[in-house]
Amino acid sequence: MSTALIDLDDLDLFVSGDPHAAWARLRETAPVYWNATADGGYWALTTYADVSAVYRDPASFSSKDGTVLGGSYRSATDTATGQMLICSDPPEHRLLRQHVHKAFGRRMMDEAARHVRRYLTDALDRLVADGGGDFAADVSPNLPAGLLAAMFGIGRDDAFHLLQLTRTMIGFRDGEYVRDNGEAMTLVGAQVEIFDFLADLLDRRRSDPGEDLVSILIAAETNGRKLSESQILYNALNVAVGGNETTPFTASAIVETLIRHPEEERRLHADPSLVNTAVDELFRWTSTNAYVRRTTMREVTLRGISIPAGETLTLWNSSANRDEEQFPHADRLDLGRTPNHHLAFGVANHRCVGMSAAWMEITLLVEELARRRLRFALTGEIDRLRSNFMLGIKHLPVELVASG
Ligand code: HEM
């Protein structure tokens, strides 16, 4: 494959193509790659060394424009800059982070695990009783729904409603979610509805505080200064989107991975003590958050290529995690792999604040699959999200097969 033909903006590559072949080619021949697009272009970094070095230098590579290309919170200037964790740089980032981090404390995670376990086992019971179903629609969403029900102190229906909205916001370029008024308005509309939902919750928590995320953000104080209303809303949104749009796609990708690697699945079923290394390897392998975005704050030189200030860079986690220079036999799934310093959650100051929650959710899933010795076979086509940001599976039709 010639690198000139590689377009990381071509969503067909992510729906029906083989992005891993494209990334391997880029790592080998053009690790600092200019990906031209109709309205300009961006730099794509694909090796482990480059991706991790840029993550570790927030002074030169800013998060102020958010992590999604052409997306999410941006208008001409980004209204979320400096207000929302993921779109802020030091020192604001550190202050916001310490408040959001409090919502992921031990007590909250224990409570969340109880919710997630209940939602997950109910969903798996139903799937088993039916002999199969659509894992991506019937089971995976229960993981974030359980987490967010606990973290936001909301009921099951509200948690699933929030999930539907965040799915539309991230999948606004996908035919299943785009509304009649077009992609841009779908994105804006979904964001407005999420903000309305959160603003309503904010009102209720102001008069009746609890131990949930919004109450924690209301009470947050730095040197006597409270967070503004928009900071509270943006960061609650950040957790809702981060929580909803990652682990369910990872869960479905894990089921697909185990179907395609029956020998590793048998290994896991035979030795449940593998769960910890298996979960890390499955995060490395699936890397559902394909890239994050940064903006250069000064002229930089990467591998001899000079990049001016103000340019857009994309750091491809999903490619870095298959880099042979870092991972021996990187293209081999090895559920016992150790060490495994993958970049699925990023690294350095912005490293995923929800990582412990994601670990808890995915560990519960993998434990449950291993304990019940559940094995699946595909009964139809896998339907993937039209996105190069989230490597998401929308529909995963499966049937149960006898474990052997
Ligand atoms: C498989 C699951 C997950 C993956 C692969 C993932 C991936 C990532 C990555 C790569 C980043 C770094 C962004 C950057 O450097 O610009 C990040 C940040 C973040 N994630 Fe996750 N995430 C996951 C689960 C979660 C969950 C469960 C939550 C919340 C409940 C969450 C909330 C966030 C937030 C709020 C940030 C921003 C942190 C900061 O900027 O300091 N994520 N995530």
Helix content: 40-55%
Bound ions, cofactors and other small molecules, one mention each:
protoporphyrin IX containing FE
Q: Tell me the series of helices and strands, N- to C-terminal.
A: HHEEHEHHEHHHHHEEHHHHEEEEHHEEEE
Count of individual beta strands:
14
Oligomer: single chain
CATH top level is Mainly Alpha
Query: How many domains?
Result: 1
Tally of helical segments? 16
The CATH architecture assignment turns out to be: Orthogonal Bundle
Rg calc? 21 Å
- What is the fold named in CATH at topology level? Cytochrome p450
Strand content: 5-15%
Specify the overall morphology: globular
Describe this protein's structure.
The structure is a single chain. By secondary structure, the protein is α+β, with helices and mostly antiparallel strands. The protein has a single domain, classed as Orthogonal Bundle (Cytochrome p450), CATH 1.10.630. Helices cover 48% and strands 13% of the residues. It has helices at 11-15, 19-29, 48-55, 92-102, 106-130, 135-138, 142-152, 156-170, 183-207, 213-219, 229-244, 247-260, 262-270, 275-286, 317-320, 355-371, and strands at 32-37, 40-45, 61-62, 132-134, 221-222, 225-226, 291-296, 300-302, 305-307, 312-316, 375-378, 383-384, 393-395, 397-401. A 5-stranded mixed β-sheet has the order 1-2-10-7-3. Strand 5 (221-222) and strand 6 form a beta hairpin. Helix 10 (213-219) packs antiparallel against helix 11 (229-244), helix 12 packs across helix 14 and helix 14 (275-286) packs across helix 16. The radius of gyration is 21 Å and the shape is globular. It starts with 10 loop residues before the first helix and ends with a strand. Residues 72-77 have low confidence and may be disordered. The chain binds protoporphyrin IX containing FE. Protoporphyrin IX containing FE is lined by residues 63, 67, 85-86, 97, 147, 238-239, 242-243, 246-247, 250, 288-289, 292, 317, 344-346, 350, 352-354, 357-358. Protoporphyrin IX containing FE (HEM) binds next to helix 11, helix 12 and helix 16.
